[in-house]
Write a structure and sequence with these properties.
Elements (H helix, E strand, L loop, with lengths): L1 H42 L6 H14 L2 H29 L3 H13 L30 E3 L6 H12 L6 H14 L12 H8 L3 H17 L5 H21 L4 H20 L1 E2 L5 E2 L4 H17 L3 H14 L8 H12 L2 H11 L8 H15 L5 H7 L3 H16 L3 H5 L11 E3 L3 H17 L3 H8 L3 H4 L17 H8 L16 H22 L1 H29 L2 H9 L1
Antiparallel strand pairs: 1-4, 2-3
Helix pairs in contact: 3-23, 6-7, 7-8, 8-9, 9-10, 10-11, 11-12, 12-13, 13-14, 14-15, 15-17, 23-24
Membrane topology: Multi-pass membrane protein
InterPro entries: ST7 (IPR007311)
Keywords: Membrane, Transmembrane, Transmembrane helix
């Protein structure tokens, strides 16, 4: 058994070498085989009577009427047109060519082709085997940590422009989040508990607001009831105030007042005790509490009380350190950048810009901004091309390349190549929705750093030379997900032109079938309109085409006459 296992790797290595040699030599074998076939056809031209066959074929073609050629070219145009329509539909739905996919999947293995090596690299294990790509989280939709207020910001945009900044898909995701996060801790479900659940599910904003007021009124009516009912309705009352702050408040000041009212409702709840469970104090739903405090910090940031907002965010992160998935640090980074506290920004990045933590455009581009800020004021492309890049400039360029590889859409908005819109309530990491959300809040910080946008403009496109095929491989991150375009179209409004990267190039077979369809249709029309002229043209074309073949046949005849082959066959 030991001998067998020891010789097995050698046999496998010989087999792999043999397969690779056959794959490499297949092209040359096909060329030799094709040359041999042509030689045999020429040698056997007399026994096979090829000359007589060609003569009879030419006579038959000369006797055909122009209607036949019109029917032939028209049928070819129709078939190629049907193939073109099918290829275009398949490409729009699946992002690839059907013919190309069938060729790669079925014909290439038969011809000895090997699998593409683009799957290895970043996700290769120590022994060289490719690790699975992170397909589950590629197109996961995340809550936008800096999402705006519906009543005070999104609705005002609708009043001014008449356009809806949020899609139904985006709002439906928010409703699901609210139903999941803002549910009370008690396990007993009553009919009254469905008031706010129904409010979150309502599609009409006015219906949601009416349901929230209904929950508050029911809470006031049951204020004198027993402890457990009061606790449940205090939870629903706090959620009702949250809904009113998000939906009904038309100013940030009014929204802040309602959030404070929601927080007071939660504090009142903490003073209520459950008589059934030995006077055990029940606390407000943690998700609801964190949400209220975070929105209060965002209100303070929007109202200009930035230091107060920073303190509230730091306290919130210290009080709930395990809720890192809520990305409160991104709110903190934006507020610190507004204060121009770059040392504090660097300290936050040192904690969250870790290889084991999920990245975001805020993390990558803020890191690039800090490094670019250190050299951008004196940066000159002409001087850099003459003397080369310094160490600090090289670090800044590499940071920009890293950020652009993570989300290549952001520079289009920072450099104002595309117009900004209001960010959605949910984003797709590495997608256009995340780029819109980042640029909406951070464009001012890039403009404040003198020369930073100029450095970004000069260097960001160099990332695409490092990664020419981003769908197949990555450099610092996993390959760019191909599903971002579809998800972004669901998250972003229809009046926004979604940024697509990498730009999908039309497959060769679509271009080929389009050209073939157009060419054959043109031939059919010309043959129908000018039959005699097209007949002359076709004869001239074929005579010109077969002239080199005739010259080659004459040379072969002079070198090896047909009588020689007759005598050879008799022997």
């Amino acid at each position: 058994m030991e001998d067998a296992t020891s010789t097995n790797p050698q046999s496998l290595g010989f087999t792999d070498k043999l397969k690779s040699w056959l794959s490499w030599s297949w092209t040359y074998i096909c060329a030799v085989w094709f040359a041999m076939v042509l030689t045999m056809i020429y040698v056997l031209r007399s026994p096979l009577k090829l000359q007589d066959t060609l003569t009879s074929a030419s006579v038959f073609l000369n006797t055909l009427t122009p209607k036949f050629y019109v029917a032939l070219t028209g049928t070819s145009s129709l078939i190629s047109g049907l193939i073109l329509i099918f290829e275009w539909w398949y490409f729009r739905k699946y992002g690839t060519s059907f013919i190309e996919q069938v060729s790669v999947s079925h014909l290439r293995p038969l011809l000895g082709g090997v699998e593409s090596s683009s799957t290895t690299g970043l996700f290769s294990s120590v022994n060289g085997e490719a690790e699975p790509r992170p397909s589950v989280s590629e197109c996961k939709v995340w809550r936008n940590p800096l999402n705006l207020f519906r009543g005070a910001e999104y609705s005002r945009y609708t009043w001014v422009t008449g356009k809806e900044p949020l899609t139904y898909y985006d709002m439906n995701l928010s409703a699901q989040d609210h139903q999941t996060f803002f549910t009370g801790d008690t396990q007993q479900i009553k009919a009254e508990d469905t008031v706010m659940q129904k409010a979150w599910r309502e599609r009409n904003p006015q219906a949601r607001i009416r349901a929230a007021y209904q929950a508050i009124e029911m809470n006031h009516e049951l204020h004198a009831h027993s402890g457990k009912s009061q606790i449940k309705f205090l939870i629903q009352c706090a959620a009702a105030y949250v809904l009113l702050a998000e939906e009904e408040a038309t100013t940030i000041t009014e929204a802040e007042r309602l959030f404070k009212q929601a927080l007071r409702s939660g504090k009142r709840e903490q003073r209520v005790q459950d008589p059934v469970t030995s006077l055990r104090p029940l606390t407000l739903n943690i998700n609801l509490l964190v949400y209220i405090k975070r929105r209060l910090a965002m209100c303070a940031r929007k109202l200009g009380r930035i230091k107060e907002a920073v303190k509230m965010m730091r306290d919130l992160m210290k009080e709930f350190p395990l809720l890192g998935m809520l990305n409160i640090h991104e709110n903190l980074l934006e507020a610190l950048l507004e204060l121009q506290a770059y040392a504090d920004v660097q300290a936050v990045l040192a904690k969250y810009d870790d290889i084991s933590l999920p990245k975001s455009a805020t993390i990558c581009y803020t890191s690039a901004l800090l490094k670019a800020r250190a050299v951008s004021e004196k940066f000159s492309p002409e001087a850099a091309s003459r003397r080369g890049l310094s160490t600090a400039e090289m670090n800044a360029v590499e940071a920009i390349h890293r950020a652009v590889e993570f989300n290549p859409h952001v520079p289009k908005y920072l450099l104002e190549m595309k117009s900004l819109i209001l960010p959605p309530e949910h984003i797709l990491k590495r997608g256009d929705s995340e780029a819109v959300a980042y640029a909406f809040f951070h464009l001012q910080h890039w403009k404040r750093a003198e020369g930073a946008l100029n450095l970004l403009h000069c260097t960001w496109e160099g990332t695409f030379r490092i990664i020419p095929y981003p769908l197949e491989k990555g450099h610092l991150f996993y390959p760019y997900p191909g599903c971002t375009e579809t998800a972004d179209r669901e998250l972003l409004p229809t009046f926004h032109e979604v940024s697509v990267y990498p730009k999908k190039e039309l497959p060769f077979f679509i271009l080929f079938t389009a050209g073939l369809c157009s060419f054959t249709a043109m031939l059919a029309m010309l043959t129908h309109q000018f039959p005699e002229l097209m007949g002359v043209f076709v004869k001239a074309f074929f005579s010109t085409l077969f002239t080199p073949l005739g010259f080659f046949a004459d040379k072969m005849e002079s070198f090896m006459p047909s009588s020689f082959w007759h005598q050879l066959t008799r022997i």
